[in-house]
From TrEMBL:
Its EC number is 3.6.5.4. One of its GO terms (molecular function) is GTP binding. One of its GO terms (biological process) is SRP-dependent cotranslational protein targeting to membrane. Part of the signal recognition particle protein translocation system, which is composed of SRP and FtsY. Pfam families: SRP54 (PF00448), SRP54_N (PF02881), SRP_SPB (PF02978). It comes from Natranaerovirga pectinivora. Composed of three domains: the N-terminal N domain, which is responsible for interactions with the ribosome, the central G domain, which binds GTP, and the C-terminal M domain, which binds the RNA and the signal sequence of the RNC. This is Signal recognition particle protein. It comes from the Bacteria.
Length: 441
C-alpha cells in the first residue's frame, strides 16, 4: 500500500505525542527527531527533510502550540500543513491549447510506465469529451508500438503509427497532421525512453520538443525508485524542460520518498499518480489529499470521486432498495463486486477510508479473491443465483467442479452471503423502526 511504512511510523510518533497531554519544547524536538528519521527511511531527499523539520519545529515550539489545550493535535496540524506545502499546495491540471490541437509529449526512462500512462491519460481526456489521438514514437523498445495499439483499442482511442523505420520527429509531425485531418483535438506523443539517461535520448527528445512545441511535456517517473526518480526528474528538467511530473507505481511504493520530494527539488508539480496497472488507475495529484493519506487520515474526497465515476447511480439506487428489503441475490452480489472492481485495486481503495489503512495493515488484501468469488458465482445457474436456497450438496459439488474451486470455498461464499442477508434484514428493521428513508442518505 502506498506510504504504508512511513504512515505507520508517523502515526505511532503522533500517538505518543497525543498521549502526553501537555508538551514541552523537548517533547516536540524528540518527536521531530523521530519524524526526521522516518522521512529519511522513506527515502525523502535529505535537504527536503532538513528544511521540513526546521519549519515544523519553528512553528510547533511556540507558546500558542505548547500551551494550547491539545498540543499534540496542533503539532499534527502543522506537520499536515507543511507536508501539503512541500508537495505543492494545490492540484495542477493539464492545460489545453485554446485554438488548435493540444500536444502532450510524454517522456521518461524505459519501464517507468510511459506507454501505460499515455494510454491512461488519453482515457482520462476522452472522458472529458475530447478526442485524443495516441502517437507511437517509441521505435526502440521492442513491442512498444504494439503495446500502445493494444491499450488504445481497449480505450477506443485511435493510435497513429508508422512502424519503427522512421525518424520519431517525422512520425510525431505526421501524427499531428493525421489528427488535423481526423478531428482529433489532443495528441499524446509516446516517445522512446532508454534504460539510463543518455545523450542520444536527450538529443532526440529536444529535437521532437523543438519541432512540435508541445503544450506540455510530461515526465513519467517510477515512484518505486525513490530518490533515483527525483534525480531523473531533475536531469530531464534541466536538459529538456518539463511542465509536470507523473509518478507511476505509487500503489507499490510503501515508502513515498519520491512523491514527497519531487516538487520541492525540481519545482515542477506532480500532475498525476499511477495507482495500478489497470488503465483506470490514474489519479490527479492533490497534495492535501496525499498528506491526509500519509498521516493515516484517509482520502474521502478521492473515494467519492472514484465512486461517482465508476458507479452507475440508477444501479446504486436499485441496489439500495434491494438491500433495504433484504432481497438481493447472488447476481446482485456479483454486480456489486464488479462495481467495486471498477474503482481500482482494493488495497488503494481501503487506504482512502479514514483509519482503515492502519487497522488492516497486517491483513493481506488479495485482489484475486474477488475473481475467485466471481468464478464461483458465474459457475451457478441463473436459478441458483436467484434462489440460493436450492443449493444442495450435489449442486455445490457441480459448481465447485465448474470453477475449479473446492466445495469448502463454495460453502464459505454461501455462508458469507447468508450472513450479509441476515445483517441486512436486521439493519433494515432498525432503519424502518427509526423511520429513516435510505441507508446511504
Ligand atoms: P514504458 O517503457 O515507460 O513505456 O513502460 P510501460 O508503460 O510498458 O510500463 C512498464 C510496466 O509498469 C508495465 O508492466 C506496466 O503495467 C507497469 N505500470 C505502469 N504504471 C503502473 C502503475 O501505476 N502501477 C503499477 N503497479 N504498475 C504500473
Amino acid at each position: 500500500m502506498a506510504f504504508e511504512s512511513l504512515s505507520d511510523k508517523l502515526q505511532n510518533i503522533f500517538k505518543g505525542l497525543k498521549k502526553k497531554g501537555k508538551l514541552t519544547e523537548k517533547d516536540v524536538k524528540d518527536a521531530l527527531r523521530e519524524v526526521k528519521m522516518a522521512l529519511l527511511e522513506a527515502d525523502v531527499n535529505f535537504k527536503v527533510v532538513k528544511t521540513f523539520v526546521k519549519s515544523v519545529q519553528e512553528r510547533a515550539t511556540g507558546h500558542e502550540v505548547l500551551e494550547s489545550l491539545t498540543p499534540g493535535q496542533q503539532v499534527i496540524k502543522i506537520v499536515n500543513e507543511e507536508l501539503i506545502k512541500l508537495m505543492g499546495d494545490s492540484n495542477n491540471e493539464l492545460t489545453y491549447n485554446k485554438d488548435g490541437i493540444t500536444v502532450f509529449m510524454m517522456v521518461g526512462l524505459q519501464g517507468a510506465g510511459k506507454t501505460t500512462t499515455s494510454a491512461k491519460i488519453s482515457g482520462n481526456i476522452k472522458k472529458k469529451g475530447k478526442k485524443p489521438l495516441l502517437v507511437a514514437c517509441d521505435i526502440y523498445r521492442p513491442a512498444a508500438i504494439k503495446q500502445l495499439q493494444v491499450v488504445g483499442a481497449q480505450l477506443d482511442v485511435p493510435v497513429f503509427t508508422m512502424g519503427d523505420n522512421h525518424n520519431p520527429v517525422n512520425i510525431a509531425k505526421a501524427g499531428i497532421e493525421y489528427a488535423k485531418n481526423n478531428g482529433n483535438d489532443v495528441v499524446i506523443i509516446d516517445t522512446a525512453g532508454r534504460l539510463h539517461i543518455d545523450e542520444n535520448m536527450m538529443g532526440e527528445l529536444i529535437e521532437i520538443k523543438e519541432s512540435l512545441k508541445p503544450q506540455e511535456t510530461l515526465l513519467v517517473v517510477d515512484a518505486m525508485t525513490g530518490q533515483d526518480a527525483v534525480t531523473v526528474a531533475e536531469t530531464f528538467n534541466e536538459k529538456i524542460g518539463v511542465d509536470g511530473v507523473i509518478l507511476t507505481k505509487l500503489d507499490g511504493d510503501t515508502r513515498g520518498g519520491a512523491a514527497i520530494s519531487v516538487r520541492s527539488v525540481t519545482d515542477k508539480p506532480i500532475k498525476f499518480v499511477g495507482m495500478g496497472e489497470k488503465l483506470t488507475d490514474l489519479e490527479p495529484f492533490h497534495p492535501e489529499r496525499m498528506a491526509s493519506r500519509i498521516l493515516g487520515m484517509g482520502d474521502v474526497l478521492t473515494l467519492i470521486e472514484k465512486a461517482q465515476e465508476s458507479i452507475d447511480e440508477k444501479q446504486a439506487l436499485e441496489m439500495e432498495r434491494k438491500l433495504r428489503n433484504a432481497e438481493f441475490t447472488f447476481d446482485d452480489f456479483l454486480e456489486q463486486m464488479q462495481q467495486v472492481k471498477k474503482m481500482g485495486n482494493l488495497s488503494s481503495i481501503i487506504g482512502m477510508i479514514p483509519g482503515m489503512g492502519q487497522q488492516l495493515k497486517d491483513v493481506e488484501i488479495d485482489d484475486n479473491e474477488i475473481y475467485k468469488v466471481e468464478a464461483i458465482i458465474l459457475s451457478m445457474t441463473k436459478e441458483e443465483r436467484a434462489n440460493p436456497n436450492i443449493l444442495n450438496p450435489s449442486r455445490k459439488k457441480r459448481i465447485a467442479l465448474g470453477c475449479g474451486r473446492s466445495i469448502h470455498d463454495v460453502n464459505k461464499l454461501v455462508k458469507q452471503y447468508d450472513q450479509s442477508k441476515k445483517m441486512m434484514k436486521q439493519f433494515s428493521g432498525m432503519m424502518k423502526g427509526k423511520g429513516k428513508k435510505g441507508m446511504f442518505k
